[in-house]
Structure formats: C-alpha cells, structure tokens
Amino acid sequence: MSEDLREKNKQAAEQQKVNSAKNEKKEELKSEIYSTDANDLRKKLSNKNAEYVFKLNKYLTENGFKEEEAKEAIDGLLPEMIDNQYKGIPANQLYGPVTQKAKDIVHPAKKVKKTPFWASWIDTSLLFFALFGVLYGIVALTSKKQDPNSQTGIITLIVLSAMWGALLNWFNTKMKLPKSERPGWGITIGYMVVGLAFMFVFLAAMTVVPATINPALNAIGYFIAAVVAYGVRFIFRRTMGIHDRSFF
Description:
This is Membrane protein. It comes from Companilactobacillus nuruki. The chain crosses the membrane at residues 117-141, 153-172, 184-213, 219-236. InterPro entries: DUF1129 (IPR009214), MFS_trans_sf (IPR036259). Residues 1-33 are annotated as: Disordered. The protein is mainly α and 248 residues long. The protein has eleven helices and no strands. 72% of the residues lie in helices and 0% in strands. Helix 3 (47-62) packs across helix 7 (98-106), helix 8 packs antiparallel against helix 11 and helix 9 runs antiparallel to helix 10 (185-206). It folds into two domains: 2-106, no CATH class; 117-240, no CATH class.
C-alpha cells in the first residue's frame, strides 16, 4: 500500500515537472512572438489568417484609413493573432468576422473609466449617511425623550457612515475581481467580522462621549441631513463619472 502511494506521488511530481516545463516553454514562445518585428510576424501567418489580414486591410482603407494607418492598426494585432494561431485559434474565431473587427478598429469602444477606491468610498459613505440619517430621524421621531447617552449623535453618524462605506466598498471591489484573484471566503468573512467588531467598539465608546462633542439632531434635522447627503452624492457621482452601483 505504501509502495503504491509512493509510486503515485512520484508520478504526480513528474507530471508536475512536465506541466511546469510546458508552461515555461509557452511563456518563452509568447515572449518571443511579442518581441518579433511585425513584418516577420506576417510571414508566419497561416493561409486563413493571411487572408483575414488582407480583407481587414482592404476594409480599413476603403473606410477612410490611409495605407500606413491600416498597416499600423493590423501590426498591433499580429502578436496576439500569431500567439493564438499556435493554439489552433484562427483570427476569425479570435476576433469574429472581418467586418466586425474593422468596425471595432474604425470606431473603438471607449474604455470605461475605473473609479478610484477613495471616490467609491466617498460615494458609498454618502449613501450610508443618507440611509442612517433617515434611520436616526425615525428613531428621534418615535422617541418620547432624548437619551443623554444616545449613540445617535452627528459625529457617530459621520464616522459610522465612513466605516460602512470603507467596509462595503472593499467587499464590492474584491467581489468584482476574477474568481482566481478573489480572496477566499474565510479571509473575506474574517475581514467583515473584524470590521463589524470595530464598529461595535466604536458605538460602545460613543456612549461616553458628551453631547457637546457629539450633539444629536432632532428628527427634522436628521431628515434634512439625509437629503443633503444624497444630493451631494448625486453631484459627486456626476462629477467623478461614477456609474457603478454601490451594492450588488
């Protein structure tokens, strides 16, 4: 039994070495392709890919591109085209029909502007401020008398919104990554638990902060603060060009 296990481990180790060698060879080949002159790459095109390049060049020149411009645009595609050619993927499968690829070159799609973390954080924090403002307003509206040790002060509202904004924005950012780059659920849940623990500690600490430092507003004040925060968020999103949703 132990001999069989050792033999299996030996075979697995050998297979791993073979796979590693294959991957290294692929990377070396890819590096060589991307460093090769475009004119030399054209000589390596298969008949199908050469025909694709010919038709693409013709379509571009017939739609306003100068010969030099068409050549430059196609030269930029050659490394990827040759790389996939070696994998058995022809250009028409990689890029789709010639007419479609030509239209993509003539009318390139605008790259979606990536929102920096700090901007997403502010955006999400403002949303939480508006939500908590409404919640605090309802609490103030339904409370018969104000608790001197209340946690619902304006400083609490600001800091709590910033904390939730940071935590949820971090979570959203990680969940939008490719599956291979996402942290495991154990790590994600761990961060969420630590973040929530900090919030509870903060809320507990705010009970001993005097009302002069952390004043509470009345119900109308909180509702107005919520509306203002949401309005500021609306303007901020338009100014920064943010189109992402704050939550999934």
